[in-house]
Amino acid sequence: ESLIDFDDNNYNRYFIGKRLVYKKKRFEFEFGELFLYSGINKGFDLRFSSPVMPLFIKDINTSEYEVSDNYNSIIFSSFEYNLSNELKFFNEIIVDDFQIDDTGRDDKLGLKFGLNFVKNNKFSFLYEYTNIGKSTYLHSGKFSSYHTYERPIGYKYGPNAISHDVFLKLNYNQHIFFNLGFTHLIKGNTNIMQNDYYWFKNENENNKNVANFLHFGITSLFRKYILNISYSNFPYVNQELSGYLERNPTAGLAIDLTYYK
Fold it and tell me: What global pTM score does this model have?
């Protein structure tokens, strides 16, 4: 991905991810890292494509206050445990930055856990709790925060967010499904497009916006078409484009028709 700054400099951005997965009959464990780096007319660095080279070392050894620091790494892990054929628990943790010394800066962490219950193809229930730190995903370098086309890479509402998500799907038959979704979101003012260093220096006030999103829909499958009719106040286009959520989200009717082969 290429981006242009205000001085008409062309910045090339590269995104690398690798993971190690261990599976058993009832559980699955995953560990890996993400690495984003950028630079003026920068080419792809083959060193970073090595499957055994830990890329976060490059991030640690480069100070965020250096002009040339355009390296941003995230370490992540996830865990799934199938208690039965119907019930599954899952957990995800991300570490963007962790303060060993007392620097006055916050840790950049993220946490998700939840459960998924499916009953004989009659209905499914999903609950997720997500907590993303105030400046997780953000970085002080040029175009080195975790976003693409002004949308977050990772949690869809970006940093400084806590949410409870509940989704219920009822199967009327093999062709008709009812969908119900609810999200309680607490979102701070931090924007995925902000520079981490200036956000910290300006001591951005941590005001919180609270939003409740509700979705109800009916999905019908017929021949090679999927018809979905829903009434919802969920953001249809991710509102991280502007950085802030509406205090009172507007509800509306949406009709989607999809053709597949």
Answer: 0.83
